[in-house]
Amino acid sequence: MAKLWAVFKREYLERVRTRWFVFATVFGPVIFGLMLFLPPWLSRKGKASNDLARIAVIDASGSGLGRRVAVELNGGLFGDSSRTQVMEVAPGGVAAAESLATKRVMKKEVLGYLVLDSASAAGQRARYAGRNASQAFDVGELQRVVRSQVTALRLENAGMSPALARSIMAGGLRLDTERLSEQGRGGSGALSILFALVVAFLLYISIFIYGQNVLRGVMEEKQTRVAEIIVSSIPSSRLLQGKVLGVGAVGITQLVLWGLASVVLAKVRAPVLAHFGVQATTVALPSISFGIALLLLAYFLLGYVFYAALFAAVGAVVNTEQEAQQVQMPVAMLLVASALVIQPILFSPDGQLARVMSLLPFSAPIAMPLRLTVIPLSPTEVALSLLSLVVGCWVAMWVAARIYRTGLLMYGKRPTLGEMVRWVRYAR
Amino acid sequence: MAAPTNMHTTARRTAPDLAAGGRAGSTDPRDAADAAVLIRGVAKRYERHVAVDGLSLTVPRGTVYGLLGPNGAGKTTTIRMILNIIAPDEGEIAVLGRPVATSDVTDRVGYLPEERGLYKKMQVRQVLRFLAELKGVPARVADGRIDAWLERLGLVSEAKDWGNAKVDELSRGMQQKVQFIGALVHEPELVILDEPFSGLDPINAQALKDTVVELRGSGRTVIFSTHLMENAERMCDAVCIISNGIKVLDGAVADVKAEYGNQRVAVVLDGRAGTGEPAVLADPSVVRTSSGHGRLREIELAPGADPQTLLRRLVGEGASVERFELVRPSLHEIFLDKVGAAGIERGMSGHG
Fold first, then answer.
1. Does B101 contact A at CB distance below 8 Å?
2. List of domains in chain A
3. How far apart are CA A314 and CA A327, in angstroms?
4. Residues of each domain in chain B carrying CATH 3.40.50.300
5. Model pLDDT, residue A212
6. Cβ B117–A7 below 8 Å, yes or no?
7. Are the beta carbons of A45 and A74 closer than 8 angstroms?
């Protein structure tokens, strides 16, 4: 036990001390922070220009549409509409008014000019020319205003009272979504799916990275021949266990640090943004129960052990980096296949595919966490999936230990699959 | 034929030293409980070849034991079985009086593999502490010993403390020293060195020899494998020669020489003409081969012939004998004789 601890300690400390680990551990939250803080910060700049109202409106519609638009642009009936100049012209005078307006734009007296004619009043088209014509927010806002005023105008022309038309036109519509489960309310639906994706992706990446880490560690020991000294002191299976657990502990450390950093960042988001004068709603963290969090961690650990054992076996039979690339393909494909079904499972988290993938040891570590965060699952299904994964881990470790033991001291020719099968069957 | 003459001189010089040092090697091999290593009928087969077959040997405690043989003879396989790295297909191995599979036995054994290497990115002190912990030595105890060893092997000086450097910053020679410390830091009772001299410069080789002598002086047992007979001849109390996985001979160096040697005589005659000396030297019942020119002759006696008979006949024929010396054969010659040049040539192609 003390020796297993010695191996574990070495694997853990040597990795945690590397620059790579420090970089990745800090970099994760930085990325997450950018995701949280940048969009509101950028959208602050992305609001429509305050002086959008500082334009000229050439109204050839003869219906008073131009004045309506001017009022709306300046904040409605009680706004100051003097900033918007409305020129009501006859249909034939549009060209002259336009050339005049163009000069004013060039002298920077106005931002641009809007041309309204009978086609505009009929709800077909309007035209805008100005220095801000390529700014999506300005153009969008202008379009919204013109469209609403055209609609209001047409409602009134159809006999509706102006007050009624205005009250019908008033008020936008915002769609808020909320997720419901058997346990009751559980945060917003969109956020929960996003969270599930992040969890599944993070598990996939972490299992891959730390599995590769084990492979590289085994290869290093084999290439430098340290392996021979170690297995003269402890059984190779003990070395394998210590290595897999040590590297896994590094992964857990990183995931926990990332998790904590994310929670803290999400909590301080609104106050920090407010400090910079940006309004932002607080991020409602998906309400993940402690039990679910534990389950997620368990799936990471077991999934990692399953793949790390297989990657370790690969590391023990190869001699060079190129060989490692080839031989690890089957193992990597299992993992990639599990990641490929993330989307189908998300669309139908209780479907046939989702259920099957949750029971296969190689895909359960990706599929189950995904489903656990989106829908409530029956304890039986979770237990069966965990049981299958535990058995899978045990078999993977057993097979890997046997290949590892023989492969670690074999140099030169790479063993064939048949030879590896014999190692597993007749290992002593 | 200049080379053999050279070896004869070596043999002449070292034979008495070994006779004195060989006492420990002649410990009764049947006293199994006292043996550092006891191997009985061990075999290890791989898919395409037999690595070791029917091997039995006894390494007495407190001796320096040489495991000799050409490359690919099965030395490393034997060592790995002694260390419980691989299990034999047949036979039994006991180390320090215990079955080899018990873990507290491996804690008392130190090992320097033939192919050397350490974690490149680790600090020297941390590598050594790790190796000590694998042998059950607590880190605190190990640290003191590591410092002492680093200083002793010149890896710590006022100018530079290599103990804090990473392994790959060290020269190859320094790395070998570190690995050597790793094999000894837990103060093992049995030290196994696989081809310890390969790749060592003369200074480090001498340091290694001194350490081996010192280890024996403090009662430890040292087993080392080599295909260089000269090293074995100088350092070993007892040897075992294996070839193609089969034991060729074993025993105390002095006994081996007595048993397989005693067949060569160096004679210096004054070379006068007209004596019966050529007739005697040509007699196949006494002399098998005779070589050399001028006055010095190397004579290999016919099987069963007594050197004293040869001397008496030479004198009787009127030859003037200025010098008559029994030549103990070198291990190298015994090795060549027993294993055959073909076996060595074959083994040169690979390592093992």
1. no
2. 53-169 (3.40.1710), 187-426 (no CATH)
3. 6
4. 22-259
5. 92
6. no
7. no
* Average pLDDT of chain A, as a whole number: 82
In terms of C-beta density within 10 A (0-12 exposed, 13-18 middle, 19 or more buried), how is residue B99 classed? Answer: exposed
- Residue A155 CA to residue A172 CA, distance in Å, equals 18
Task: Please name every residue paired with A85 in a beta bridge, in sequence order, or none if there are none.
Answer: A56
Check whether domain B22-259 has CATH 3.40.50.300, yes or no: yes
Question: In terms of DSSP bridges, do strands B221-226 and B35-45 run parallel, antiparallel, or are they unpaired?
Answer: unpaired
B262-327: which CATH architecture? 2-Layer Sandwich (3.30)
- List B110's β-bridge partners, or say none: B191
CB atoms B120 and A220 under 8 Å: yes
User: Is B134–A224 a contact, with Cβ atoms under 8 angstroms apart?
Assistant: no
Please tell me the distance in Å from B64's CA to the nearest CA on chain A.
21
Q: Does B136 touch chain A (CB under 8 A)?
A: yes
**A-chain residue closest to B350, CA distance:** A412
* Residue spans in chain B of domains classed CATH 3.30.70: 262-327
Give the mutation candidate from A226, A236, A411 for the B interface (greatest B CB count, under 10 A).
A226
pLDDT in tens, A353-410: 889 999 999 999 999 988 888 888 888 999 999 999 999 999 999 999 888 888 887 7
Nearest CA in chain B to A8: B130
A residues 12-31 closer than 8 Å to B (CB): 14
DSSP-assigned states of every residue in B261-277: ---EEEEEE---SSSSH
Single-letter code of the amino acid located at A163: A
Residue where the block lists tokens 């002492």: B148
d(C-alpha B50, C-alpha B244), whole Å: 8
Q: Is there a contact between A234 and B107 if contact means CB atoms under 8 Å apart?
A: no
- Count of beta carbons in the 10 Å neighbourhood of residue B255: 16
Report the chain B residue with the minimal C-alpha distance to residue A2: B136
